[in-house]
Amino acid sequence: MRTALTQLLNIEYPIIQGAMAWISESKLVSAVANAGATGVIALGGRDAEWTRNEIRACKALTDKPFGVNLMLMASNKDELVSVIIEEQPAFVTLGAGNPVPYIKIFQDAGIKVIPVVPSLKLAKRIEDAGADAIIIEGMEAGGHIGSQTTMSLMENILPEIKIPVVVAGSIVDGRGLAAALLMGAQGVQMGSRFLLAEECTAHINMKEAIIKATDTDSVVTGLLSGHGGVRSLRSEFTDRYIAAETDGITTAEERSKMSQGTNKLAAVDGDVVNGAVQVGQGLNRLNEIEPARFIVQSVMNEAIMSIRKAQRFIDII
To answer: Which CATH architecture has domain 4-201+283-316?
Structure first.
C-alpha cells in the first residue's frame, strides 16, 4: 500500500507501532519493522546508555527503518538528543513538550521529525515549523491522553494540514486503518494491538488482563491534576486514585506519589492490581497473543477488504 507516509519513511505499510514506556524495545520494534510496518523505541524513563544500546540492538535485528520517541519533559532530554543524532534512527516522534526547537536540529542530522499534536492550532504551528509529518492521538488511546476524540481530531485537523497526518487512538485493526485513510490520513499509529505481540516484553499478567477485559473496563485517572488524564484498565490502584482525586483531602503531591512507577509495576513486574495497565479502549478486539508479523498482515488484509467493501456505496449511487 502506497501513501505519503510509506514514501516518507520508506516502508511497505502505513502503520507505526506506537511508543509504550518500558515495553517498546528493540525486539518488538525490529519485529514490526521486519513485517513491513515500522516501530518506535520508547525512551521514557530511560538513560543515554540504554538508548544507545537499544538503537544499536535494533539495527542488528533489522535493516528496515525505525524510530525513537522522545518525551520533551524528560530531565535528560538534551543528552538523549545527542545520542539520537549520533545513532541515527530513521525518525523521531516528539511529545510532552514544545517540539519546534528540535525540528531543525534532527532534520539537519538527517532524521525525520514527527511530533504528536493534540489540536489544530498546534498542528498548524508544527507544519509551519517544517515537521515531516504529525501524529494526532485521540483520548481513546492508552496512557496519557488529550481532550479530543480520535474522530474529532480527524474532522478538525485532516482537512487543514498538508503534511502527512498519522492517526492514533484506539485503532486496533484494519477497519480503523481503513477509516483513517478514507478520512484523509496517510497512516495510523497503533500501540495497544502490539502490546499483545509475541515479541512484546510486557509481562504476561498484563497481556492476560487486557485479553480478559471488555469495552467498558478502562478508566481515566489524573483528570484533576492539570496535566491531562491517563487511561488504564480499572484496578484497585485506579479505584484508590480516583477516590483520592475527589475526597477533598488528598493533595496533588500525594496523588502524584501514588501514581509514580505504576506503569512499570504492571508492564515489567506484572502487578496488575497495584499497577496501571495502560491500554486503549478498543479492548474487545484485543483478545489474542500473536506474532508481530501476523498482526501487521491481519491489519492490512482487513484494511484492504474494508476499503473494497466501501466502494459498494459508490456503485449504488
So the answer is: Alpha-Beta Barrel (3.20)
